[in-house]
Design goal:
alpha/beta; 2 domains; six-stranded antiparallel sheet; four-stranded parallel sheet; 6 helices; 10 strands
């Protein structure tokens, strides 16, 4: 596990050097690896990690594809878009499906996954945008999805992965908790011995080494 003090020291340097921008900068975690052959599919990282302190205003829009009962639950949970089962095929229209892929994280009622794949999979699949099946309570899954980030390896050969862990408007202590959550998820997947170095950076800032 990373040292909390080192995380806060690195964050202090990141905030000190952030400068003034006309937009809200993200804080990103970068992990470099050793001894892993990322050219092998089974070794590549593709983790979804729920940040305990949220994303500081960088939450994605969530669309839920469901039948009426689950759709009503999703509406109460303030999902950004509800697509009823009978509307799925209509979203195959070029403008609608592009909007879905570009602007939403998709969740779907499990028994509708086949229909979604048939109607929309040809476009969504190659873009890695196929919906996640709703497991358990849809309200909890929407909330978790909004807090989640993807920690994925870059390409087939680069031994590095990167993920958003907050924004410059968040408290350093909260960003630190998010960093620990992402680091622990990576460590549990690859083993701590594979982690060569860890850096934190602002969108426009220089990387600062944590360890």
């Amino acid at each position: 596990m990373m040292d909390k003090k080192k995380i806060q020291e690195a964050l202090a340097k990141v905030f000190e050097d952030k400068g003034k921008r006309k937009f809200k900068q993200s804080v990103e975690l970068i992990v470099n690896f050793r001894g892993i052959d990322f050219s092998k599919t089974e070794h590549r990282l593709n983790l979804d990690v729920a940040l305990p302190k949220g994303k500081g205003g960088k939450e994605p829009k969530v669309a839920v594809i469901a039948e009426e009962a689950m759709a009503n639950q999703a509406k109460n949970a303030k999902a950004d878009l509800i697509i009823l089962s009978q509307e799925i095929s209509a979203y195959g229209a070029p403008d609608k499906i592009k909007n879905l892929a570009d602007n939403y994280v998709l969740l779907a009622q499990p028994n509708l996954m086949g229909l979604v794949a048939k109607s929309l999979g040809q476009y969504l699949g190659p873009r890695g945008k196929l919906p996640r099946p709703v497991v358990g309570n849809v309200t909890e899954m929407i909330e978790r999805t909004r807090r989640s980030v993807k920690m994925a390896s870059k390409g087939k050969y680069l031994p590095v992965a990167q993920a958003l862990v907050g924004t410059e408007e968040m408290k350093p202590e909260d960003i630190g908790e998010n960093i620990e959550a992402v680091y622990d998820a990576v460590k549990n997947k690859t083993g701590e011995h594979t982690i060569k170095s860890v850096y934190i950076k602002m969108t426009m800032g220089a990387p600062i080494r944590v360890e």
